[in-house]
Amino acid sequence: MTKDIATPGRTREILEKYGFSFKKSLGQNFLIDLNILRRIVDFAELSNDTGVIEIGPGIGALTEQLARRAQKVVAFEIDQRLLPILADTLSPYPNVRIIHQDILKADIRRVMDEEFTEAHDIMVVANLPYYVTTPIIMKLLEDHLPIRGIVVMLQKEVADRISAQPGTKDYGSLSIAIQYYTEAETVMTVPRTVFMPQPNVDSAVIRLTKREKPAVDVIDESFFFQVVRASFSQRRKTILNNLTSQLPNGKQRKETIERVLAELQLDPRRRGETLTLAEFAALSNRLMDVFNEKA
What we know:
Layout: H1 8-18, E1 30-31, H2 34-44, E2 50-55, H3 61-69, E3 72-77, H4 83-89, E4 96-100, H5 108-115, E5 121-127, H6 133-142, E6 149-155, H7 156-162, H8 173-181, E7 182-190, E8 195-196, E9 203-210, H9 221-231, H10 239-246, H11 254-263, H12 277-294
Parallel strand pairs: 2-3, 2-5, 3-4, 5-6
Antiparallel strand pairs: 1-8, 6-9, 7-9
């Protein structure tokens, strides 16, 4: 049996062998706790039919656990210095492919088409670099990839925002965007002590299960998100003030916006953080109709 990568001793041995030093700018914190890695893989519910996309494999600690359970793992690594290390640590696993590319610039759908010809189920599983967590998750969802879901380790604060409910301080445009596409749940919190080097924040694992269709019906997705972002642009302001100051020609359309809010029985003095996904959908759909009528 191959010696596990994710122990403090083995991790140090690998880093010393290659003279590897951590780059703070790349958010490199390697997991050194096997139990936590195995639990992450459990949450992803992999099978012999599953293809896995990983982002930021580091020295291969999570990749190794994924390779033992999935049909194939394709990992995107941006740091060229890690490529020879991964070639070494993952050499026992012929079902792993490392791609040296920034995930944010990758054509992920094309890679999936090429790499997962045999897989009938695709998951994203990763210990994400914390400085770029949100853009990565949003790209995975906005690209409408044929994935079952996403299980990722990220900063606890971001996990709290992703799974937040209306009326809470963590609820915002990120909560709405992710809950629009997925069912979101925080499945585990993780102490900073299980990383090398230790990050300054606590972490959490979230599981996002992709919805067959978005949570609410909207006429225009980009306008829906525009209304959501506008509503949260200044959290202390009312929904009416935010919409009139942030939507295109909002000031000239103030009376129209007030009329739509009244029609939907939405108090104009409410704040964005109190509106549900369904209320935002109704609001954006009606505003779109009325704005188009007047155009």
